[in-house]
User: What shape does this take?
Amino acid sequence: MKENTYNTDLLRRITYDPNICHGQPCIRGLRYPVELILELLSSGMTTEEILEDYDDLETEDILATLLFAARLSQVKSIHKIPS
Assistant: This one.
């Protein structure tokens, strides 16, 4: 599947930096991990509510988070790591 420019631009909003949030994927180098945004959405918060609570975030950041999560879910198989 060929990536369109809009999706590519959205995914560029997801950054990795070992000095920010221990290298977790974050929004635009800010200290907002993708995981936090997904948790807020899954708790029932709307995009508008998240944007009201977090002034630095933009609508495209929420969309980028969802696109990133969608791409992660496209993994073909998951193997349990022995404990």
